[in-house]
Each structure stands twice: as structure tokens, then as C-alpha cells.
């Protein structure tokens, strides 16, 4: 009888820990956003790297973001690489390894284009300052694309725009702040996602505890 009781305990603990290890259902919410009321800032998608910083308001998994993009009248599609970077003192560090990266294809009319980065597991806390970075590419594109925003007006108060620039004929390896500019963006956080131990680890711990309990009963 004691052996059967111990077996039932092991199965019960394993099932319970398996439920704990199951990922929480995704329920992303809009966390930070800036949608310019009267867009008048058009930064060319090209050689220069741009970064729009933002301050996290909700803790959880940074699941996706959207950026306000547009191409010229021909509406030819193009692809731009965006990344999520940490900041130091509110300033993105040029050339650091990204926390997440996504290629966004856009074309035609002005609109928000989204990127799902949930697979990168970027966990954030309120007050974290991160940067959405548009990675610079080769010059001499046959058509133009823009990351769109607003300048010299009420913008996003919890972040700022930064851009690389040219020093002589060479591209700088640092950012220059452009506090009078903000670019259109939205970020989404899943507050229900929290890091959990791996199921196999939980199962081993549970089996060990149940075995100890059964041995003490015997």
C-alpha cells in the first residue's frame, strides 16, 4: 500500500509541475506609442542608422513592435532591418549586439508595419530604456523609403531620436541626438509571460521530492 501511495504522489507532483512549466497564454498589450498627428519628418531609409528610444511602462515579454513607414509614389516594396537594443544612460550604443532583430517589408502608403519578436524572449521591466534601431544599408537605392515622424512639435516625451552622421567622408561610429524629432512607433508587451524553469528540470526535482516523501512514509 505504501508503494502505491508513493507512486501516486510522484505522478501527482509531476503533473502539477508540468502545469507550472506550461507557458502562459499570450496576451500582448500596447505599452508605448507615438503616432504623429501631422507627420512632417521623413528620415530616409538608407546608409545612416537611426534609433528611437522609449521607456518601458509594463513588465513582461516584449512581444512585438510597429514602425511608421512609407515609400515614394511608385510604391515599390523594400525591406529594412530593425533591431531592439539596450541603452546606456538613455543613449543607444552603436554597433552592439541586438536583443532582437526583424526584417520589415513595406511599400506604398504611409502606415504602421509590424514585427513579431516574441521568439527572442526579451523580458522588460518598467523604467527600462530601450531603442528601436533602423540599421543602415547600402547607398544608391533606386527608390526611397522613410521612417516617418514629427519634428519641432509635441512628440514622445519618454524617448528621443538618435542618428549616425558623416564626419568628413566617413560614417561616424556614434550617435548624435536629435531631441526635436520623434519617429512613429508602437511597442507591445505580454505581461503574462514570465520566465519559468525548464519542464525537464521541474520534473526531476518533483520526482526527487516525491521519492523522498514516499521513503519517509516507509
How many helical stretches?
2
Question: What letter string, H or E per element, gives the SSE order?
Answer: HEEEEEEEEEEEEEEEEEH
Mean pLDDT: 81
Q: Helix coverage percent of residues?
A: 10-25%
Kindly estimate the percentage of residues that lie in beta strands according to DSSP. Answer: 35-45%
What is the CATH level 1 assignment of the largest domain?
Mainly Beta
Uncertain runs with pLDDT below 50, 5 residues or more?
A: 13-17
What kind of sheet is the major sheet? 8 strands, antiparallel
Secondary-structure content class:
alpha+beta
Cα distance spanning the termini: 10 Å
Mind telling me which CATH architecture of the largest domain this is? Sandwich
Radius of gyration: 24 Å
CATH topology of the largest domain: Jelly Rolls
The total strand number stands at 17
Work out the count of structural domains: 2
Described by the principal axes of the CA atoms, the overall outline is globular
Features:
single chain; 218 residues; alpha+beta; Jelly Rolls; 2 domains; 8-stranded antiparallel beta sheet; 7-stranded antiparallel beta sheet; 2 helices; 17 strands; globular
Task: Describe this structure as you would to a colleague.
This protein is α+β, with helices and mostly antiparallel strands and 218 residues long. It has 2 domains: 2-23 and 197-217; 29-190, Sandwich (Jelly Rolls). The chain is 18% helix and 40% strand. The strands form 3 sheets. Strands 1, 2, 4, 8, 9, 11, 16 and 17 form an 8-stranded antiparallel beta sheet that branches. Strands 3, 5, 6, 7, 10, 12 and 15 form a 7-stranded antiparallel beta sheet that branches. A two-stranded antiparallel ribbon has the order 13-14. β13 and β14 (170-171) form a beta hairpin. The longest helix has 20 residues, at 2-21.
